[in-house]
């Protein structure tokens, strides 16, 4: 292997691993979003009230992202799903609360609902990634 083709030290390997993990996390999140929207639209089309469709869609997307994050993002080989489900829900709920809180705090000062949603979502993604990585799927 040519010089420089391998990481020079453990810190570089760790950084590459973290970046790879973050990319997988974002991919899983995007998939969760598609599941959420698709389930909502399907259920409303089938006659469900929108509020009920949203509740079901959020639950379906959350279970899907929990499974994908456990198996794909954080690569838990000997993963014990029963041990991670409740902590996953708690971290996801905390991230959702952060999202809402940041949105409410920024909506008026920024004067832009879209910008407030983008900032709130970015911050809540950082919170959820850190929480899932450290508290739910940590080694």
UniProtKB/TrEMBL annotation:
GO cellular component, one term: plasma membrane
Keyword Transmembrane: yes
Recorded topology in the membrane: Multi-pass membrane protein
Residue ranges crossing the lipid bilayer per the database entry: 22-44, 50-68, 80-107, 113-136
Localization terms from the record: Membrane
Every GtrA/DPMS transmembrane domain range: 24-137
Pfam families: GtrA_DPMS_TM
Keyword terms, alphabetized: Membrane, Transmembrane, Transmembrane helix
Family note: Belongs to the GtrA family.
Name of the molecule in the record: GtrA family protein
């Amino acid at each position: 292997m040519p010089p420089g083709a391998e990481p020079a030290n453990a810190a570089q390997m760790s950084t590459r691993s973290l970046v790879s993990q973050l990319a997988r996390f974002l991919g899983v999140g995007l998939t969760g979003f598609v599941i959420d929207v698709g389930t909502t639209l399907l259920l409303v089309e089938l006659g469900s009230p929108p509020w009920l469709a949203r509740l079901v869609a959020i639950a379906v997307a959350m279970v899907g992202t929990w499974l994908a994050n456990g198996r794909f993002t954080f690569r838990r080989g000997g993963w014990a799903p029963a041990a991670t489900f409740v902590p996953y829900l708690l971290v996801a709920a905390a991230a959702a609360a952060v999202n809402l809180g940041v949105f409410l705090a920024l909506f008026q000062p920024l004067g832009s609902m879209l910008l407030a949603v983008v900032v709130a979502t970015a911050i809540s993604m950082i919170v959820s990634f850190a929480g899932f990585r450290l508290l739910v799927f940590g080694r």
